[in-house]
Amino acid sequence: xxxxxxxxxxxxxxxxxxxxxxxxxxxxxxxxxxxxxxxxxxxxxxxxxxxxxxxxxxxxxxxxxxxxxxxxxxxxxxxxxxxxxxxxxxxxxxxxxxxxxxxxxxxxxxxxxxxxxxxxxxxxxxxxxxxxxxxxxxxxxxxxxxxxxxxxxxxxxxxxxxxxxxxxxxxxxxxxxxxxxxxxxxxxxxxxxxxxxxxxxxxxxxxxxxxxxxxxxxxxxxxxxxxxxxxxxxxxxxxxxxxxxxxxxxxxxxxxxxxxxxxxxxxxxxxxxxxxxxxxxxxxxxxxxxxxxxxxxxxxxxxxxxxxxxxxxxxxxxxxxxxxxxxxxxxxxxxxxxxxxxxxxxxxxxxxxxxxxxxxxxxxxxxxxxxxxxxxxx
Length: 378
Fold this sequence. Notes:
By secondary structure, the chain is an alpha/beta fold. It has a domain of 197 residues. It is built from 13 helices and 13 strands. It is globular. The two termini are 36 Å apart.
């Protein structure tokens, strides 16, 4: 069946009116206005694009766009500040993923970790929406050794870490190796600030992340009630090995009396997962890394997917990271790092230039709702 190009995309004149190029210092910036006959097409295309390609943080989005009038610039900054406030309401200290990648790379480089002498290990959830973070790490260090498991718990164990370390580049003459271990759980916090909610391309209604931690939530209420039988350490369900090990590790991390009467909400479960993942990674690194042979770093946090809260109006998909710990060991000496205090952020223009100055849609028409005032249909 033939498809009319004018029917699908609108007239050439309409498209020309909808695409504007900023001249002068930002010649690479293209702002696409979703309006008129092309609005539905552009919004749907952007939703699809955002779901499978790189997502940016708020500072990148502040720089990109059309700044001809001060009120438009102020409105765009206010919009992205509100999006960040909705994330930080649950996870204080969260910053855009590209901002986080910039700071991590700079700080690691100060200690000698670079893309040509280091191998990265990534320990994230198996969910496909963690891919933008993995891709950002691949840009820094080349393809990483994946030691992933459900919810970001290490499934590969000592054998997996050992395999990755045996793939490391080696230094000329000394043979020194360098590893960076990234480990974190993830959670969705939509543009209205609702924990657990996200929209996935091609799927009707509201989806969720992290599904494994959501499944785990009611188990804490059972634990508090005293009727929960926790699996013995090291045992698992052969048909559901990763989840059963995850459940056992998480339930052993708290005492029944520590669980409130209403149970843990998803944000609390995610923060607990981050704490347990840090402990697990520390134990694995201590058991497997020889600091006399290699320098290494461990970087943890929470990956946060801030996607639109409704399909009725376009809101850009963004990625945030809440940093929780980082340290490097060089020549046997440990150095603890506070990314937020020790590493200055890049300027928005630097982020925009580093990420390639992609096409950016203009600021959404409405501000995101305040936390707790909007809930998507499930």
